[in-house]
Design a protein that fits this description.
It is a single chain. The chain is an alpha+beta fold. The protein has a two-stranded antiparallel ribbon with strand order 1-2. The protein has a domain of about 55 residues. The chain has 2 helices and 2 strands. The protein is globular.
């Protein structure tokens, strides 16, 4: 499968997203540029409350720019909590 877009496209993660409500959030660094970060987030449930929750989480995930899709994807040598990260920093 391929397509000609005329731009360099880098896909970091691919996953199937299922749930009662799925939100798609595309983050742009400038209005005249295409989106640079995309997030799909699913929640169980439907309606305005579920849609708002899914969107709010999608925005926060984009802001955090995670390197992994799930905990199972994280290598064993990567710390899981801020205490471990702080212990490695020169503070």
């Amino acid at each position: 499968m391929g397509a000609a877009l005329g731009d360099k496209v880098v896909v970091r993660c691919i996953a199937r997203v299922e749930g009662g409500t799925v939100d798609a959030y595309l983050h742009r660094t400038a209005k005249d540029l295409p989106a640079q970060i995309g997030v799909l987030f699913a929640v169980e449930g439907e309606g305005d409350t579920a849609a708002t929750a899914a969107h709010d989480v999608a925005v926060h995930v984009a802001a955090m720019a995670p390197n992994y899709l799930s905990r199972e994807d994280v290598p064993a040598d990567v710390p899981f909590n801020l205490g471990d990260v702080g212990a490695q920093a020169d503070l």
